[in-house]
Design goal:
Layout lengths: L14 E3 L9 H16 L2 E5 L6 H15 L3 H4 L21 E7 L4 H11 L6 H28 L4 H8 L3 E10 L8 E7 L5 E6 L4 E4 L5 E3 L6 E6 L1 H6 L9 E5 L5 E10 L4 E2 L17 E2 H9 L7 H6 L6
Parallel strand pairs: 1-2
Antiparallel strand pairs: 2-9, 3-4, 4-11, 5-10, 6-9, 6-11, 7-8, 7-10, 12-13
The structure holds 2-oxoglutaric acid and fe (ii) ion (FE2).
Length: 322
């Protein structure tokens, strides 16, 4: 599709201004949907300016409070347990020595956020942290929903937004992540290269480090702008689109003697939700590039070896190099 918006795909992730609220269906909305679609197909990643809803001060407040969170004693952080790997507390390991992470499932519910805060600060909780996290979480989920709606709308397939999001077939998970400050000038891997397994991801970080692999196999730095959010298309959306949207492999390269903090919201399918190609993406040849699967089964497969290169292709790929 022709577009009057030129991206420099090899050096820069596109950034869209969502501060102007377009009415759904308006010309402005439709144009934005096409740009988001182009970025999703070419890049699998884009940034958005969303300061009308989350001003810079709110990001700065959140980064400050994340330091408070990770300063909590280790025995308390470990109390954040979840049977799903990666959704509880993850401490530093020999393979990943710089990263610590906390997960909150069903993060759209204020009582989940409050329970988490009470666990970390057993003596009276931390109302100020709780309020900041709750507000940021709700806004990130709202933003994910807008982006998802734009992707679906751009293909004229709004009905999938209804069946997924409005019919409660998704789960919201938030991860709070800390990367240690480097002790030497030598850059180090903070998070190994991966794609996100869910539907769509929204994140923000206080300093540089996030990189994506371009279609030409070059690592591109995602510009750190404290006031913007970065969006990633997840594996489930690639399946839905029969391979039409792109998945950006991404990693975090630590280069600074500064602590790095990220807050990340994932929209994922329900555990037993079936991920499958939408019939609208099947050509006359009938080719399904992926077999249908239960989201949970894929997660189990992935967690058995999180360092594998293309888990989606190995697990559900039907055609080579999909
Ligand atoms: O910390 C970041 O910038 C990236 C985090 C990430 O990719 C993830 O949590 O899936
Ligand atoms: Fe990720």
């Amino acid at each position: 599709m022709a577009s009057d918006y030129d991206f420099d795909y090899e050096t820069k992730v596109p950034c869209f201004d969502l501060t102007e609220c377009f009415e759904e269906g308006s010309q402005g909305w439709k144009k934005l949907c096409q740009q988001v679609r182009q970025a999703s197909e070419e890049y699998g990643c884009f940034q958005v300016l969303y300061t009308n809803s989350v001003p810079l001060e709110q990001h700065e407040d959140m980064f400050m409070k994340m330091k408070e969170l990770f300063d909590v004693p280790l025995e308390l952080k470990r109390k954040n347990k979840n049977p799903k790997p990666y959704d509880g507390y993850i401490g530093r390991t020999p393979k990943n020595p710089y990263i610590e992470s906390m997960g909150i499932e069903h993060a759209e519910k204020s009582d989940q956020v409050r329970d988490f805060t009470n666990l970390m600060w057993p003596a009276g909780g931390n109302p100020s942290f709780c309020e900041s996290l709750d507000s940021m979480t709700k806004k990130m989920i709202e933003l994910e929903h807008i982006c998802l709606k734009m992707v679906f709308d751009s293909y004229g397939l709004e009905k999938y937004y209804e069946s997924l999001v409005e019919k409660d077939n998704t789960i919201n998970v938030v991860h709070l992540v800390k990367y240690d400050s480097l002790a030497t000038d030598e850059p180090a891997i903070g998070a190994t290269a991966h794609t996100d397994k869910g539907i769509i991801t929204v994140l923000n970080s206080n300093i540089q480090g996030l990189e994506i692999l371009s279609k030409k196999n070059k690592w591109i730095l995602v510009e750190p702008r404290k006031e913007t959010f970065t969006i990633f298309i997840g594996d489930s959306l690639k399946v839905w689109s029969n391979g039409r949207v792109h998945l950006a492999r991404h990693r975090v390269m630590l280069k600074e003697k500064n602590e790095r903090y990220s807050y990340v919201a994932f929209v994922i399918p329900k555990d037993d939700g079936v991920v499958e190609v939408a019939k609208e993406f099947i050509d006359e040849d009938g080719l399904h590039r992926y077999r249908p699967y239960k989201f949970n089964d894929f997660l189990r497969f992935y967690y058995a070896d999180v360092y594998q290169d293309d888990a989606l292709q190995s697990f559900a790929g039907v055609v080579d190099n999909a």
